[in-house]
Design a protein that fits this description.
The chain is an alpha/beta fold. It is built from 12 helices and 22 strands. Strand 2 and strand 3 form a beta hairpin.
Length: 457
């Protein structure tokens, strides 16, 4: 049979609408299971590795096909019953159908596979994933999408891989207080003040602290005068909420928060504590959504980098880890491009009486490391800590760190692929991997946080 004949046979066998039985072998971070048929990869949401399922092909490309699940034929013991009524529709949680112990093993295996495939690190010793403790009700922040229709405003989350709204009346992975707030806004179809607050809203963002306080921000295109009018009444109706904020002037139609905000009632900030460190955060703050796991990361950092007397904290955000190092006796220099985040970092340093031990700089990390101050700080540091965005770091920054010959590097990543890419460069420039520790910051999802400690050989 010629290649063209094979291709025609494959196309016919996997044409849209075709139903077939497949055994699935892998699970991707986005929740899609992977099988193979007629020489092509087939992606489908619903099955788990080791399961046999009846699927229907919905689209066919040159190298892969996509299918919908029709029925499960063989079920593996790792399968769990999803606890959310919109699982599989909402784009938020991808793996509620996988038991929690299996999620932890799966995430460790994802890290190991990325290091081997992308980083070329075949013998990486990846520790078992540190559990979140409570795999439900852990998120301290929620961002609701608002949609208006003939019957009034609705709130919810985006459907997987689209901007279609999935209405919700609660969410089992946010804290109970935030779950209650979702219910209040979901039922606010026509009654003031909540319905008035949603009239021009694009998003509602709420953040909750373990001590019980919460703050709510409503994102609109422009300052909302009607929201300002009802804000005091809304504040009185929302249990535990200490402030109402109007966030406006978003950078795009889908931006969750705007570039500006104003406090309409109460205050904009609440206080959180992790490891004895106090943080004042607002709905717009870049602050970890699972503080119990952050405390476990602190423990790991103390074990491996706690003795460093000078630390450079790159991509420091609002100073979460800068303040941890300073609290443990180090002198810290944090670098962050967001002026707002640096302002919050400085305020939190003063809140903890640590302003004598920590300094912050505003600027792009890749520019700062090439400055005279950056070169000097890296050369004198006992440790460098990086917590970059999902895209990872960059060649300029990694080369500057390696050239400084700093003894220890701590790299915290939320993406195993970009982590593996960056580690490949650091390892090739004289650093050895001392610990690779995944943390389950985001249970029920395909996301995993990984702390890697490297030492100069």
């Amino acid at each position: 049979m010629t290649n063209s004949e094979v291709a025609r046979k494959s196309a016919a066998a996997l044409a849209p609408g075709t139903e077939l039985d497949l055994v699935f072998t892998d699970l991707l971070a986005n929740g899609q299971a992977v099988a193979r048929a007629e020489g092509l990869v087939v992606f489908c949401f619903g099955p788990l590795p080791g399961e046999r399922a009846r699927v229907r092909i919905t689209s066919r490309k040159a190298t892969y096909a996509v299918a919908d699940l029709e029925s499960l034929i063989h079920i593996v013991p790792e399968r769990a019953k999803p606890f959310c009524p919109v699982f599989g529709t909402c784009g938020g949680c991808q793996v509620q159908h996988l038991s929690y112990d299996s999620q932890l093993r799966w995430k460790r295996d994802m890290v190991r596979a990325a290091l081997q495939r992308i980083g070329g690190i075949a013998d990486a010793a990846v520790d078992e994933t540190v559990s979140a403790g409570n795999p439900r009700a852990y998120r301290n922040k929620v961002a609701l999408v608002v949609e208006r229709g003939a019957s009034g405003p609705r709130v919810g989350f985006y459907r997987a891989r689209s901007h279609d709204l999935v209405p919700v009346e609660g969410c089992p992975v946010v804290t109970p207080q935030l779950d209650d707030l979702i219910g209040i806004f979901a039922r606010a179809r026509s009654e003031a003040p909540a319905a008035v607050a949603l009239e021009k809203a694009r998003h509602v963002v709420a953040r909750h602290a373990h001590r019980g306080e919460a703050v709510v921000s409503v994102t609109t295109a422009q300052p909302d005068e009607a929201l300002e009018t009802v804000a005091p009444a809304l504040l009185a109706e929302l249990p535990g909420v200490v402030g109402i904020v109007n966030s406006f002037d978003p950078r795009s139609a889908n931006a969750v928060v705007g570039r500006n905000d104003r406090v309409l009632a109460g205050r904009a900030e609440i206080e959180e504590q992790i490891g004895g460190i106090r943080y004042r955060v607002s709905p717009a703050s870049f602050f970890q959504i699972n503080v119990e796991v952050v405390a476990r990361i602190f423990d790991a950092l103390h074990e491996h980098l706690g003795s460093a007397d000078e630390v450079v904290d790159l991509y420091c955000g609002m100073g979460t880890f800068s303040l941890f190092f300073a609290k443990n006796g180090a002198r810290v220099l944090g670098v962050e491009e967001s002026r707002r985040a640096v302002g919050e970092a400085g305020a939190n340093a003063r809140l903890n009486d640590l302003e004598e031990r920590v300094r912050f700089r505003i600027g792009l990390v890749e520019h700062w490391v090439r400055s005279p101050e950056g070169a000097k700080a890296l050369a004198s540091a006992g440790a460098v800590f990086l917590d970059p965005p999902r895209k990872g770091s960059d060649d300029v920054t990694l080369r500057a760190i390696a050239a400084s010959r700093v003894k220890y590097i701590g790299y915290l990543s939320c993406d195993p692929a970009t982590l593996a890419r960056d580690l490949k460069q650091l390892v090739s420039n004289g650093y050895a991997l001392r610990r690779i520790q995944p943390f389950d910051m985001f249970p029920q999802t395909g996301h995993v946080e990984v702390l890697v400690v490297l030492e100069r050989q």
